[in-house]
Specification:
Helix 10 links the parallel strand 13 and strand 14. The strands form three sheets. The protein has a five-stranded parallel β-sheet. It has a five-stranded parallel β-sheet with strand order 10-14-13-11-12. The chain has a four-stranded mixed β-sheet with strand order 1-2-3-9, with helices on one face. It has eleven helices and 14 strands. 24% of the residues lie in helices and 17% in strands.
């Protein structure tokens, strides 16, 4: 999560600050009625059966302004060092490289980035893993303590070098849950300028459960690498102020997608419609007080683009057809979101790396949006759902 803005009727302006940092300034204003207090927009939408509420207030009252500003170091590098001609490798490809010997000597670093839920039917890394794979703990190694902001470029450099990554290394990532967090790692690696990043198509499921290939207990040791991270590439990361601007345009157009970006919500249809929030026993701190979706977003659940049996991505033409049918206009760039950004990264990988489109991940996602005050929310259930609903 890049910022923790509490916004009402207002505007957001990303501006470059000194030192190459992006100053995210959110200015929220709300009219004060004669009796005092904020009057904010609760939720907005326009689809059939969508509940809506807008801000109201009496003219002439004083206004209150809240400004939250966070500096996120970054730059705009475009997509040249992000898009790759060969984003996926097969389990056969990896098995052949392992048969040839040391992956590091072949310029390959293999990383396991798994969620490791107790309910997983796959073997956790600590017990056994694909030969020569190292483990990266996404929840602690990618983010700063007590925030959801990522480690800085210097810290990422240290992490990458500890994994043996050089400028010319091919980084191959895999994980459980059909590569949810492996794709998240791929996005983070691209964010910091690692140029040759690939996913093992089908991930650990394909290797272990479907192919029934070998797992080992040995943890590899690799020489320290020399990779130097770049500042974050903000062309592949969306922040809440940018999404808010798009959402407000869509809300004003009765929920139609009129903004310059497509918004793709990859959560379940029930979450998108506002019928359910999240299961706190599974997702713990990822719940949201407001249920629904960002106005103008289309819903394509991530499972629609993978093979149910192998966990591999569907062919490129099938993936494109699924999004076109859902209403994605490929003449416009795309912002994908979920709850915390990991499944949105899976969608980012499909749309950006496999299809070659211009795509950002809004990693604040619904855990940020659904807990913010005053942002527009569309709910197709016809109910006032969530913490503020009549449950």
């Amino acid at each position: 999560m890049s910022t923790e803005e509490k916004t009402a009727e207002g505007s957001s302006t990303p501006q470059k600050s000194s030192g190459g940092k992006l100053a995210i300034a959110v200015i929220a204003t709300a009219a004060l009625a004669g009796t005092g207090g904020f009057v904010v927009a609760n939720s907005t939408g326009g689809d059939e059966g969508t509940t809506t509420a807008a801000s109201s207030g009496e003219a002439g009252g004083e206004s209150a302004t809240t400004i939250n500003e966070v500096d996120i170091p970054g730059e705009n590098r475009g997509y040249e060092d992000v898009h790759t001609d060969e984003p996926l490798v097969t389990t056969d490809w990896l098995a052949e490289r392992l048969d040839e010997g040391d992956l590091y000597e072949q310029g390959i670093v293999l990383l396991d980035v798994s969620e490791d839920l107790p309910t997983s039917e796959l073997t956790p890394y600590a017990e056994a893993h694909i030969p020569q794979a190292q483990y990266v703990e996404w929840s602690s190694e990618f983010t700063q303590p007590n925030t959801r902001e990522f480690i800085d470029a210097d810290e990422f450099t240290e992490l990458a070098q500890s994994l043996g990554i050089n400028d010319d290394t091919t980084v191959v990532l895999y994980g459980d849950n059909n590569n949810w967090f492996a794709a998240y790692a791929a996005w983070v690696f691209n964010l910091y300028g690692v140029e040759d990043v690939k996913l093992l198509d089908g991930g650990l499921h394909k290797w272990e459960a479907y192919d029934e290939r070998e797992l080992v207990e040995e943890v590899p040791s690799v020489p320290e690498g020399d990779f130097e991270a770049k500042p974050q590439n903000h062309d592949i990361r969306a922040f809440q102020p940018e999404v808010l601007e798009i959402a407000e345009e869509n809300a004003a157009a009765d929920g139609e997608n009129v903004g310059e970006f497509n918004l793709v919500d990859i959560r379940s249809a029930e979450e998108h419609n506002g019928e359910v929030g999240v299961d706190p026993e599974i997702f713990e701190g990822e719940g949201a007080s407001i249920w629904g979706h960002i106005p103008g977003s289309v819903n394509v659940t991530w499972t629609e683009i993978v093979d149910e049996e192998t966990g591999e991505f569907l062919p490129e033409e099938e993936i494109r057809a699924i999004y076109e049918e859902a209403g994605v206009d490929f003449d416009k760039p795309i912002i994908a979101y979920c709850r915390i950004g990991e499944r949105a990264s899976h969608t980012w990988y499909a749309l950006s790396q496999i299809l070659g489109e211009e795509v950002k991940v809004y990693d604040g996602s619904w855990s940020e949006w659904g807990n913010s005050v005053g942002v527009p929310v569309a709910n197709n259930s016809g109910e006032r759902a969530g913490l503020w609903g009549q449950q």
